[in-house]
Each structure stands twice: as structure tokens, then as C-alpha cells.
Amino acid sequence: MELSNRKKRRQFWIGMGISAACLAAIFLFVEPAAILEALKTARYGYLALSGGALVLFMVLRSVRWRFMLNNAVPWGQVFHIQNIGYMLTQLLPFRLGDVARAVLIGNVPPITLARGVSTMVVERILDMMFIVTLLPFTLAEVESLPPWMQAGARGFGIVSLVLIVILIVAANQRPFTQRIATFIFNLIPFLDTKSWVQRVDELLAGLSSLTRLKDGLILIALSVAVWLPILGAYRSALTAVHIQPTWAMTGFVVCAAAFSVALPSSPGQVGVFHAAVTAALVQVLHQPDGASASFAFLYHALNVIMMVTLGVIGLFGTGATFNHVVTSTQKFMQRDNAQTLE
Known about the structure:
Blueprint: H1 2-29, H2 32-41, H3 45-68, H4 75-91, H5 96-106, H6 113-138, H7 147-172, H8 174-186, H9 193-206, H10 213-240, H11 247-260, H12 272-284, H13 289-318, H14 322-341
Helix pairs in contact: 1-12, 2-13, 3-4, 3-10, 3-13, 4-5, 4-13, 5-6, 5-14, 6-7, 6-9, 6-11, 7-9, 8-9, 10-11, 10-13, 11-12, 12-13
């Protein structure tokens, strides 16, 4: 347990260091005066449109999540629990919000904790599929993109698609996958093979919705619908700082932001988000540096405000308290870590 705590502390400070470095890089390459001037002249009415689009984004995500839960839970409850999770992700490290969502929904009959965890995985896969599919279309807007970047983006897309196909095939061939997993885990002496094979099987069970044609098509359609409001939110916020975005340009910035989330960072992806979208706008799309950085700060602030507001409403809607949610989530993570070490 102490080893796990030390590892988490190390991860936390690494993330904080990366966030600080990213913020410092922005102010190193972009004049603070240019950012302030862009903020002064911004058309803040467009941010209201972005805020509305973010609410629609959350509504559609909850519809998709409820579908993955076989519509077994009232939509309002799913919506509130989802928003609580997103709030925690903005405020706490280690993307604790995703775990909190799984724990909270797992306590709502007939949903189990394993089912809640598996839907988190499926969500990530669906989102990755959308971003990977979107990225090549956005490259048409960035003729100046260096060849190595284009190759890297396409290579990442190919690898991601291959992994998605492997997961879907594995979900269709669960007995065979269990045998392969058993063989691999038996080669690692300090792992509990039975426990880890069970985890793999639970993951594949969660992916079963992607193997049924009708359900798979519905999930893909919902995933496209989920991301359309985000494209609208980004475009409105870019317009607010006097950048004239095309849809392809907007999509490229969304992809840059999505990939930045994979980096270790402080809670809420502070710094890494700002650096990624600013670099995408300035270095690749050749937009004014002050306007680009001001967009990053304005959009991120709006996103945090919206997520925290919806999360607080979610706490009232479910009757939960912030401390209770955090405590129950931490207990689950400690128990899970203890089982992993056994």
C-alpha cells in the first residue's frame, strides 16, 4: 500500500511539473500583453453559445451512457452521476472522476460495479474512434504540417484502429481470449492469473455492445452526435477571439486537445490543454499567437465552470455529498490496488 501511495505521489508531482512547464512555455513564446489585448477585445457573447453547446454535449453523453447500460437507469440519474464524475476530473488528480462514475452507477440497481467500469472503457474506445477518424479529414486544412507530423498522425490513427479491431475480435472470441490471457498472465509470477483473467473478461463483456450490429450502429451514431456540439463549442469560442475558423480547422484543434489529455498533468488538464491548442493554432494553422492563447484560456475556463456547475447540480440531484463521493471512490481504488498486489 505504501508503495502504491508513493507511486501516486510521484505521478501527481510529475503531472504538476508538466502542467507548469506547459504554462511557462506559453508565456515564453506568446507575449502576455498580446493575450490580455485579445481578452479585452473578445466577443464574449459567443461564449454563451459555447456554454450551451457544452450542456448539449453532456446531455448527449448521458444518453449514450444510458444506452450502454441497457436503459436500465432513469436518464436523470445517469445525467447527474456523469456530471459529478466530470466535476471531479476537473478538480482532482488521476482522472478520479471516471472511477467515481463507475462506483456511483455501480450502486444503482440493477447495474453492477463491473458493468459501470466496462462502460467507462467502451466510452474511451468510442471517443478514440471518433478522434482517430476525424483527424485525417482535418489534415486537409493544414498543408504546412511537417511531413513527420502527418506521418505520425496517420501512424497513430492506424495503430489505434488496429487496437480497436483487436478488441472487437477479442470480444467476439471470449473463450479463446481467456486462454490467451491465462497463458500470458501465467508467465508473470507476481500476478494473480485468475483475478486478471476475470478483469479481461469483464472488459470484453463491456465491449459486447460493439459486436451486435444494431447496437453497434446506434452507438456509433450517438458517438458522432456527442462530438458535434464540441465542434460547435470550439468554433464559437474561436470566433469570440476574432479567429475565423473553418470546420476542418476547428476539428484539428479538437483533435489536438483530445490527444493532449493523454499526457500526465494537473487536475483538469491545466497547461497541457493550453499548450496543445495554442501550438495547433499558432504553429500549424498560423493564427495570431495572442488570440490563440486567449482562446485556450477562455475555453478551458468556460469548460471548468460548466463542468463544476453541472457537477454541483448533480450532487443536489442525487442527494450525495462531495466528501462521500470522494471517500467511496478512494476506498474502491485502495481495495482494487490491494487486490492487484496480492
